[in-house]
């Protein structure tokens, strides 16, 4: 049987299925959290410590995934990560002890970290062999999976289905996606020019500190993920406490942000092809800054409420394609082997997603939530300011064989 080629519709379909499975399985956990808290009989502080296990497992697995994908290819790691998430989901819905839940969350997080890095490395390979941008579409399927996972699990639980039954059904869907993707995923590829330096020194280390442009790309990803996390965890409070929006309507802000981001990613490949990565970073970052400014400056009037909600839409549209462009640039840079670079950039970015909301809370306690979002807006300025530097990575990529 002929090995799958990166520049084939079947391989692109397999990559989309990997992103869809990752977003779906990750979001299935969110509706299960209240059930887990009730089953374990813990308070919010203890639950918060337990949830850290998910982040710890994810960040710990990311650096090890890069050298493993270099040795064995991304296919076995995508399948192992997806299988781990599918097997952990029923455990998350049934485990009744703190130690057992901590282990289940560590496994779930490590599987997510492995899948996240491996599928992005695979996506970089697929996009590099194509004549058009693909990364935004791949990440768009992750967002679609998120909607389907959280929405589907919520509907099943609302229909009085037992959590363990709903979790098993969801896990079965993840396994179906993996089974469809498995024969179409790329096998291990011959070492290219970037891997030569890695191979020359023998086995790759399990962790390499991001260098040069990779460090900058990681910081930009951190800022973007931090913005997403802040809107998720603190956006509704900003609307209710400082914009006068009723609590019953505050959730609409993040919903608009999510819809705008998903639509932006599903159409993003055409946008990146038409504008180029430099303009996407420049105007996307500028739009996100403008949206955050609307959230902060909108008056407490009916028109101000409309403007605040428009700010959520604008941030989602502006930020939609920033991370996909950053992943593409990380795969094209020549400073580090692409697999190691993607792992390092992903780990830095996830640090913003995992630790950012806590940082926002710390700043809000001392100076107020608007001050925390003002700091976030200031940090976002680095994105358009770095647009030319990110865009220049295209030049060597066009010259490479």
Automatic annotation (TrEMBL):
InterPro entries associated with the record: MFS, MFS_dom, MFS_trans_sf, MFS_Transporter
PROSITE patterns on file: MFS
Entry's transmembrane regions: 13-33, 45-64, 76-93, 99-119, 140-159, 165-186, 206-231, 251-268, 280-298, 304-327, 339-363, 369-387
Major facilitator superfamily (MFS) profile domain segment(s): 11-395
Cell location: Membrane
Membrane topology of the entry: Multi-pass membrane protein
Superkingdom, taxonomy of origin: Bacteria
Entry keyword set: Membrane, Transmembrane, Transmembrane helix
Pfam families, per database record: MFS_1 (PF07690)
GO MF annotations, alphabetized: transmembrane transporter activity
Keyword Membrane: yes
GO cellular component terms, semicolon-separated: membrane
Gene3D superfamilies, per the entry: MFS general substrate transporter like domains
Protein name: Sugar phosphate permease
Taxon lineage: Bacteria, Pseudomonadati, Pseudomonadota, Alphaproteobacteria, Rhodospirillales
């Amino acid at each position: 049987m002929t090995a799958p080629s990166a520049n084939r519709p079947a391989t692109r379909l397999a990559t989309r299925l990997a992103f869809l499975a990752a977003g779906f399985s990750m979001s299935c956990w969110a509706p299960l959290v209240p059930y887990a808290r009730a089953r374990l009989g813990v308070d919010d502080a203890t639950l918060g410590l337990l949830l850290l296990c998910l982040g710890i497992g994810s960040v710990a697995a990311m650096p090890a995934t890069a050298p493993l994908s270099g040795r064995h290819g991304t296919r076995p790691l995508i399948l192992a990560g997806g299988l781990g998430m599918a097997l952990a989901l029923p455990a998350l819905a049934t485990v009744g002890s703190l130690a057992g839940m901590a282990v289940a969350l560590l496994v779930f997080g490590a599987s997510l970290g492995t899948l996240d890095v491996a599928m992005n490395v695979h996506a970089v390979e697929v996009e590099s062999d194509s004549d058009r941008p693909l990364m935004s579409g791949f990440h768009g399927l992750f967002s679609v999976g998120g909607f389907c996972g959280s929405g589907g699990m919520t509907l099943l639980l609302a229909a009085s289905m037992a959590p363990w039954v709903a979790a098993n059904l969801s896990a079965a869907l993840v396994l179906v996606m993996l089974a469809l993707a498995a024969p179409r995923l790329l096998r291990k590829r011959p070492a290219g020019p970037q891997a030569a330096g890695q191979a020359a020194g023998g086995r790759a280390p399990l962790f390499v500190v991001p260098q040069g442009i990779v460090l900058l790309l990681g910081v930009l990803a951190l800022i973007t993920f931090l913005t997403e996390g802040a809107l998720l965890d603190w956006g509704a409070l900003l609307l209710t406490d400082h914009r006068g929006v009723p609590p019953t309507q505050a959730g609409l802000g993040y919903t608009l942000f999510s819809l705008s981001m998903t639509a932006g990613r599903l159409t993003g490949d055409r946008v990146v092809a038409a504008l180029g990565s430099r303009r996407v970073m420049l105007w996307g970052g500028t739009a996100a800054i403008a949206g955050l400014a609307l959230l902060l400056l909108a008056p407490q009037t009916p028109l101000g409420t409309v403007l605040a909600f428009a700010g959520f839409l604008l941030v989602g549209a502006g930020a939609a394609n920033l991370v996909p462009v950053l992943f593409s640039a990380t795969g094209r840079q020549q400073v580090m082997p692409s697999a190691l670079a993607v792992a390092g950039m992903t780990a830095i970015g996830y640090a913003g997603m995992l630790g950012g909301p806590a940082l926002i809370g710390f700043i809000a306690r001392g100076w107020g939530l608007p001050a925390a979002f003002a700091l976030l807006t200031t940090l976002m300025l680095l994105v358009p300011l770095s647009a030319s530097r990110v865009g220049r990575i295209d030049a060597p990529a066009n010259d490479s064989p």
